[in-house]
Every structure is written in C-alpha cells, then in structure tokens.
Amino acid sequence: MKYQGTILLAALCVVLSACDMPDTTMANGAVTLKDNVVTLHVDGAPDAMINAKGELQVGDKTIATTPPEQGLLMLYYGNIADVHDTGTEMGKVGAGMGKNALQDKLNGKSKEETDKDAENGAAQLKTLAKKMCQDHVNMLSVQNQLAAQLPEFKPYGKIFTNKDEDVSCNKDD
C-alpha cells in the first residue's frame, strides 16, 4: 500500500514527459519553439514553421526564399532561440539564488552576507532581462521586415506588436 503513491507519481512523471510540450511559448501561444523549429500560429492561416537554416514552411508548402529573406528568417529564429536560452539561464540563476539563500541560512551567515548574495543574483537577472527585452525588440523589427518583403509571411506579421518596440530596454527600474 505504501508504494502506491510512489508508483502513481512515477507513472505521472512518465506521462508528463511523453507530452508534446514546446520548449518555449511566446505571444500567448502564437510562437512556439520545439525540437529546433519555430512554429507560428495565427487565426485564419496555416501554421508556419521556421528552422535554424531559415527555411520557411507554411502549412504543407515549403516557401522558396531569396538569400536576404532566408537571412531574415534565420535572424527571426535566432532571436526566438535567444529568448529561450535567456529564459533558461534566468531559471538557473533563480534556482541558484534559492540554493544560496538556503545554504546561507543553514550555515548561519549574517544578514549582510545573505543580502550580498541576493544582490549578486538580482544583478544577473537584471542583465538577462535587458538582453531578453532587446531580443523582443529585434524580433519585432525582423518580423516587420519579413512581412514587408515576403508575402507568405504577411499573415504572421502582427504577432509581436508596436507596443513591444516602445519598451526601453535600458531604463533602470
């Protein structure tokens, strides 16, 4: 009887790991990154997929692109991958901050020492947040260029909005 909970938990972990979850989701699910493919989801259009090589597929159709368009698609993919990587790094910093706080408490460190550890982690998070902000601004810029130059991309050209562009990534809060 006491092993039922363990077996149930193990089964749940297996089921959850088998779920088809994206690595990153942005813009209320309009953009996902999974298995090194960015997928764009908008109402009224088939899903569009972009890989790291800058290849675009809309629905079941591979779209022929010029070298400059392919370069923009690579940039778009790269910015989304950068946001994923930065988010992962932020999670690691946050986990490290929690671990350090617990160790500081267990080791009886002074408030000044624990505050210094927290400030160091906060500074790392602030730097990473500025990088992520700039990645969002870059995504909007590349998205707008793609929508203007590549007709097949136009339906996906409003995923990131101008309000994202108005964000100042260098302001101090």
From TrEMBL:
Keywords: Signal
Signal peptide: 1-20
Superkingdom of origin: Bacteria
The protein, known as: DUF2884 family protein
